[in-house]
Amino acid sequence: MNNAIPLLLRQLGLALEQQGRTRLKGLGLSISQGLALDYLFSRPGQKIYAIELHKASGLSKAAISSTLKELKKAGYLEMFSDPED
Prior knowledge:
Layout: H1 4-26, H2 31-41, H3 50-57, H4 61-73
Helix pairs in contact: 3-4
């Protein structure tokens, strides 16, 4: 097996990550904010709970909470309390 393939895949992953960071920065977003918005936009019309974002992203509950508050403050989303949550 060619040992260069894993290295090339790693380099590709790093290049894509850097490009994503650059594009998100241009929008005034962090990576966690971009991930959260991507998750939310991929589920139009659905109720999404913070715990779902936590499980899907692997980010801590505190990081998700902070991310959602920042997105709300920037006008990217609205949040509502759910008495069943």
